[in-house]
Amino acid sequence: FRAERIRLTLTETGEELVFAKPEPQYPRWSGSIYETASGARTLTVEIRNYLPCEREDRATYPITVTIRLDGRELQGCGREF
User: Fold this and answer.
1) Taken in order 29, 70, 19, 14, is the CA torsion positive or negative?
2) Which end of the chain has the least Cβ crowding within 10 Å, N or C?
3) Tens of pLDDT along 34-48?
């Protein structure tokens, strides 16, 4: 079940959103893109394997993730699905 879904929890409301996990798109840069929708909500997840990510506590991770939810963009550290 979990391998076929993308689950996203919104920190400000605690709302949990569940999207079908599509086949990834492979752009020219090293990484993957997932575009999906659930009802009226749209989600794009860009996983950039080549772009290191540094958190506020100075911890560094090898992957940067950009999420676009209904046009709102969020960026942070992440990992491959």
Assistant:
1) positive
2) N
3) 999 999 999 999 999
Cα–Cα distances in Å, from 19 out to 32, 33, 47, 69, 81?
17, 14, 17, 11, 14
| C-alpha of 32 from chain center | 10
Helices and strands (H, E) in the chain, number of each type: 0, 8
CB contact set of 25 (below 8 Å; sequence gap of 6+): 32, 33, 34, 35
- Cβ neighbours for 73, distance < 8 A, ≥ 6 positions apart: 66, 67
Q: How are the residues of the chain apportioned to helix, strand and coil, as percentages rounded to the nearest 5?
A: 5, 55, 45
Task: State the pTM of this model.
Answer: 0.86
